[in-house]
Design goal:
Blueprint lengths: L1 E5 L6 E5 L18 E7 L3 H11 L4 E7 L8 H13 L7 E6 L1 H13 L5 E6 L2 H7 L4 E6 L2 E8 L4 E4 L9 H18 L1 H15 L3 H21 L14 H11 L6 H18 L5 H13 L11 H10 L10 E6 L2 E5 L4 H10 L1
Parallel strand pairs: 2-9, 3-4, 3-5, 5-6, 6-9
Antiparallel strand pairs: 1-2, 7-8, 10-11
Helix pairs in contact: 2-3, 4-5, 4-7, 5-6, 5-7, 5-9, 6-7, 6-10, 8-9, 8-11, 9-10, 9-12
The structure holds nicotinamide-adenine-dinucleotide.
Length: 356
């Protein structure tokens, strides 16, 4: 078992990483308040893993809430329904919510935990690679609004995160690739050596090699924990984690939520951000080629779906990170170092979108 810590003073918490990590009650001890637990999961994950998690808490009052699958569930109505159920069951402030699922379940459950009774304990048990390396760590919780993704949300840190690599065995290959997109992102924005390691190990990760997968999860969680510890509420350095995301969120919105995976959309977004960085002579054409090759090796797309560039720009402007209507982007100074800027030629961005 490997443990990373997210250091946030009173809100610090461990990330337990390892095969079987979710089966050890020890990993939950100290993070559960009271005797009432509600496990929120979905119709895909429930038949696979819900019983084994529920059984761990046989001496407690356990409520199970099973959502339909899909990004379209990330809406206030779903939160309302979960809260109705918690109320009916008489859960109070000293209850604990457990998110058992991918980023969708994690975001909905975290947001519900943040507002139910003004905020209750919650635990993340992420079951997708993307959720293990990204969504479950850092306390961002949200649901979508028709105006855009994650526009209704809060910061609410989990009490602990439990990343069990067993869950990845049942994941579709496309979901492993989606996780790889965020893993590659960490290398690009923060750790050149990790990116170089990834260039050599993508096939091993795709084929679920336990050593490679364990290293990728540990290093990704360590980088995310380090960044979040420096800037919990995204006032500065945490914004770098949005590399590729302003483009990506706009792609997700315009293709209809759930039609493109978050990872696919972010992959194309990273390529666009890298090409813009190259236009500004920050990184080299070889760097861009290396990025594209790594993403392609991970079975991720590197070019835009057929979207009108003007619509894409408009969607990027409506993203919540657009300050004063000027689109701020995370670009690369070099592989392993990113920065946030609105200081680029607008025509460069427009031309890039037309050409991609
Ligand atoms: N809060 C954050 O910091 C943060 C960061 C990144 C992404 N996100 C959000 O996360 C969401 C994407 O998360 P995701 O990629 O995990 O998608 P997801 O939750 O939709 O899961 C992908 C698919 O895998 C299925 N699944 C989950 N675990 C499984 C398992 N072990 N075996 C088989 N199938 C399984 C799900 O039912 C779903 O069909 C987006 O809504 C995104 O906005 C949040």
């Amino acid at each position: 078992m490997h443990i990373e810590t997210v250091n946030l003073e009173d809100n610090s918490y461990p990330i337990f990483i390892g095969e079987g990590a979710s089966l050890s009650l020890e990993n939950f001890e100290g993070y559960i308040a009271g005797k009432d637990i509600a496990i929120v999961t979905n119709e895909v994950v429930a038949p696979l893993y819900l019983n084994e998690i529920s059984d761990l808490f046989s001496n407690m009052n356990v409520i199970e809430y099973i959502l339909p699958d899909g990004e379209q569930e990330k809406k206030l109505k779903t939160v309302h329904k979960i809260i109705d159920r918690l109320m009916e069951a008489g859960l109070g402030r000293d209850s604990t919510l457990i998110a058992l699922g991918g980023g969708v379940v994690g975001d909905i459950t975290g947001f519900t935990a943040s507002i139910f009774m003004r905020g209750i304990n919650f635990i993340q048990i992420p079951t997708t690679l993307l959720a293990q390396v990204d969504a479950s760590v850092g306390g961002k919780t949200a649901v979508n609004h028709k105006a855009g993704k994650n526009l209704i949300g809060s910061f609410h840190q989990p009490k602990c995160v439990i990343c069990d690599s067993r869950f990845l065995e049942t994941l579709k290959a496309t979901e492993i690739s989606a996780g790889l997109s965020e893993i590659i992102k960490y290398g690009l924005i923060y750790d050149r050596e990790f990116f170089q390691w990834l260039q050599k190990n993508i096939q091993q990760i795709l084929s679920n090699d336990p050593v490679a997968v364990a290293h990728a999860i540990q290093r990704s969680c360590a980088i995310k924990a380090e960044i979040v510890a420096q800037d919990e509420k995204e006032q500065s350095v945490r914004a770098l984690l949005n590399f590729g995301h302003t483009f990506g969120h706009a792609i997700e919105k315009l293709t209809g939520y759930g039609n493109w995976t978050h990872g696919d959309a972010v992959a194309v977004g990273m390529v666009l951000a890298a090409r813009l960085s190259e236009n500004m002579s920050l990184i080299t054409p070889e760097d861009v080629q290396n990025i594209e090759e790594a993403l392609t090796a991970a079975n991720l797309p590197i070019s835009l779906p057929s979207i009108d560039p003007t619509e894409l720009l408009a969607a990027m402007k409506s993203d919540k990170k657009a300050k004063d209507r000027k689109i701020q982007l995370v670009l690369l100074k070099k592989i392993g170092e990113a920065f946030l800027t609105a200081d680029y030629a607008k025509e460069d961005l427009t031309n890039l979108l037309r050409a991609s």
